[in-house]
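Same chain as my last thread, 244 residues:
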Amino acid sequence: MMSFFDRCSAFGPAALFGLLMLLFVAHAAAQVPSISTRGEGKLQIPADMAEVHVSVVTVSAEPDRASARNEEESAAVLRAVRAAGVADADMQVESVRLQPHREWNNTRREWESAGFEAVRSVRITVRDLGALPGLVASIVENGANRIDGVRYQLSDPKGHEVEALRLAVVDARRRAVAIAEGLGLDRVRVVSVTEEGVSAPQPMMRVESAMIQKDEAGGNPEAWAEGTITVRASVQAHFNAFSE
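reply #2:
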């Protein structure tokens, strides 16, 4: 019975040489050290816009009166927002509710019915953070009596996410080079890179008390200091390491 190499030689020296080269390349590839690393990229970017969530809460013994007062005071708030230079497209009424109002009787140690409560919640997008303190003061003075939160954002998050990914790839390669040098090798070649994820959580500042007073909001810039958003990205990378 003819051996495998005898059969290959029957096709001529060229075929045998080609087979030997394939075997050599496969053997050499099996000997190349493989390195896998995880890279991380992080950017800290000052927010350049914010969403302000405010509510107008009115209470009255009669439901119709509670709703009417709420509509009037909400209209005054929206006029103040427009006067501050905010476009109508950046104002969104999120919810309108009418519900029984209850108050705590400390003497009887129980909740008691106390008329009706109308609540209108509005989301305001602020594209000039320098105007935020004055805007908050204005809307409170004009009828908003609850600040549900201020969420800071980036106007161009995608651009920062791409940069964080680039930094993650650089970090993965730097780690691979360090490992290769520890093995006595001086070069790495990328085989594959897989994106694991990108995140940019938006910091949310909340007012501690549920209801705020006019003198608590004010126009103090420190009270509404802009947030910093951390953009993170991670990748999984595989390299071959070798020496020249």
